[in-house]
Amino acid sequence: MYNQEQAKPFMIERIVAALTYPTTGIIGVIWLVLGMITKSAPRKFTLYHIYQSIFLSLAFVIIDYLFRILVNMLAVVPILNRIIAQLLFWFNMPVFLGYSIVQVVIYAVVIYLTITAFIGLYSYIPFVSDNIKQILK
């Protein structure tokens, strides 16, 4: 017989896990709050995807801020400012259906995570998934 951790996730759990990624974890936080109100503990599958979406969202914001600070600091250097301006132009230039390279990569990762969560699989992102698994043990 299956125990709770090996059992296939219910459809509602898969939907919540899938919706946490495009909403940057907001649906997951709402699900956790509802679980606290109803005094029901979410299963590991749902917690895994909720924590991973929140961690990835926070990591993205922190990396974005650090990158902006670094670019602003390097923009003062005479030769580097032109090189950085050119790199930023190439990475932010629309190349695929009006989206830049950076946007395409971010959307591809979010779509991958959403689909894997919806079909009931544990998605894997190096470093992030390993840390989430350690938290849930």
Task: Give a brief rundown of this model.
The protein has 137 residues and is an all-alpha fold.
Number of self-contained structural domains: 1
Structure class: mainly alpha
Average pLDDT score: 88
What is the strand tally?
A: 0
Which stretches of 5+ consecutive residues score pLDDT under 50? Answer: none
Order of helices and strands: HHHHHH
- Structural shape: elongated
Characterize the largest beta sheet: strand count, sense, and whether it forms a barrel.
none
The radius of gyration computed from the alpha-carbon positions, rounded to a whole number of angstroms, is 19 Å
Helix share, percent: over 70%
Descriptive overview:
The protein is mainly α. It has one domain. 70% of the residues lie in helices and 0% in strands. The protein contains six helices and no strands. It has helices at 11-20, 26-38, 44-74, 78-92, 101-118, 128-136. Helix 1 packs across helix 2 (26-38) and helix 1 packs antiparallel against helix 5. 18% of the residues are buried. The mean pLDDT is 88.
